[in-house]
């Protein structure tokens, strides 16, 4: 158990220190790694939204997928599986992305923002915990999206092939791929370094199963602090890395934080929606990306939902900016919370009906 605890902390520490290094090498401040933001940038680069400041094929994402794919193949853990409520997964992922873009970051970036002194991330963290707590209440009542089952082998290669296509498009830069000339999308570390770091993180997290939502969920449900130890590792090593590599950009406070806003209510509610969706999906965006590399087609559907959410958010002015949260974004978060809670209750009612039906059959 001690060795296991060391490994999970070390894997989190690796993510934290590499995120700080990516910022040093050119990634946006407080955004060494942000799975939601990176998928948003990729969505823009593919022309699915036209926000010109967030368009770039982030090589870290295909790195995560291929790193997990290679490690799963080596360890004999690559399995083509899926079929667990794909439409509901798509909807949950869609609203997860809406919540993340209102907060301006995925749960991983929330930790990295805090490690660079952004106190708005504390508000987001509280919202994330509340969302996860709500989700665990559904889990306790029997919520499930159903079991994944074995699928044709070729389906498991969908996301690894997509990752390779993204790398080819990034390197060849055809005219139909869009690249930001200013803003966060124009800020990036060297391509092959980013790809290499992505491959390393993907391989390591495939082995340790680190998940931001899972870490908090396990503490609430079963008082298991194993995965939470990895999240602490991310924070501590990102903090150390920022103090070493990015000291001039390190600042503690709420105001003037890079690519962030200090609207407390919507930071809180955005991450509440994100946490709730992540628990019902069975993993945060980072974990879903790793699962997709292992052949999990449910995770692949989740990624498509994330990208659809990113496209919708920027095409219809839902995403926040350092200026604050637009009216459309606030409405979208409220609608998202209502829809996701309805999904939660509906699945719980399905479970109760099946239990009652089974009880009647047994009595007869």
Question: Sheet bearing the most strands, described?
Answer: 2 strands, antiparallel
Distance between the termini: 47 Å
> Segments where pLDDT lies below 50 for 5+ residues?
360-364
- Side by side, the strands of the main sheet go 1-2
Mean pLDDT: 95
The count of domains is 1
Helix proportion: 55-70%
Task: Give structural notes.
Helices cover 67% and strands 1% of the residues. Helix 3 crosses helix 12 and helix 6 (120-140) packs parallel to helix 11. Residues 360-364 have low confidence and may be disordered. With 364 residues, the chain is an all-alpha fold. The chain contains 14 helices and two strands; from the N terminus they run αααβαααβαααααααα. The chain has one domain (2-363).
Summarize the structure.
With 364 residues, the chain is an all-alpha fold. Helix content is 67%, strand content 1%.
């Amino acid at each position: 158990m001690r060795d296991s605890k060391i490994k999970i902390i070390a894997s989190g520490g690796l993510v934290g220190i590499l995120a700080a290094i990516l910022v040093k090498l050119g990634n946006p401040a407080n955004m060494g790694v942000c799975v939601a933001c990176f998928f948003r940038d990729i969505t823009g680069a593919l022309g699915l939204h036209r926000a010109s400041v967030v368009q770039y094929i982030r090589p870290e994402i295909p790195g995560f997928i291929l790193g997990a794919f290679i490690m799963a193949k080596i360890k004999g853990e690559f399995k083509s599986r899926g079929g667990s409520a794909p439409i509901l997964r798509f909807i949950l992922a869609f609203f997860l992305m809406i919540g993340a873009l209102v907060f301006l970051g995925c749960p991983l970036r929330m930790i990295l923002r805090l490690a660079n002194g952004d106190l708005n991330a504390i508000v987001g963290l509280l919202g994330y915990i509340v969302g996860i707590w709500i989700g665990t209440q559904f889990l306790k009542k029997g919520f499930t999206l159903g079991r994944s089952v074995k699928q044709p082998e070729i389906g498991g290669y969908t996301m690894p092939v997509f990752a390779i296509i993204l790398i080819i498009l990034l390197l060849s830069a055809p005219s139909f791929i869009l690249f930001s000339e200013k803003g966060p999308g124009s800020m990036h570390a060297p391509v092959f370094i980013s790809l290499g770091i992505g491959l390393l993180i993907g391989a390591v997290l495939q082995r340790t199963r680190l998940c931001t939502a899972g870490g908090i969920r396990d503490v609430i449900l079963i008082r298991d602090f194993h995965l939470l130890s990895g999240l602490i590792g991310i924070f501590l090593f990102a903090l150390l890395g920022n103090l070493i590599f990015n000291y001039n950009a390190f600042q503690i406070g709420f105001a003037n934080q890079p690519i962030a806003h200090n609207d407390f209510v919507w930071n809180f509610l955005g991450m509440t929606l994100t946490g709730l969706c992540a628990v019902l999906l069975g993993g945060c965006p980072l974990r879903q990306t790793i699962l997709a590399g292992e052949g999990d087609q449910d995770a692949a559907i989740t990624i498509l939902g994330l990208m659809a959410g990113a496209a919708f958010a920027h095409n219809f002015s839902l995403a926040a900016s350092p200026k604050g949260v637009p009216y459309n974004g606030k409405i979208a978060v409220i609608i998202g919370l209502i829809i996701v809670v309805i999904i939660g209750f509906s699945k719980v009612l399905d479970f109760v009906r099946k239990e009652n039906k089974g009880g009647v059959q047994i009595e007869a």
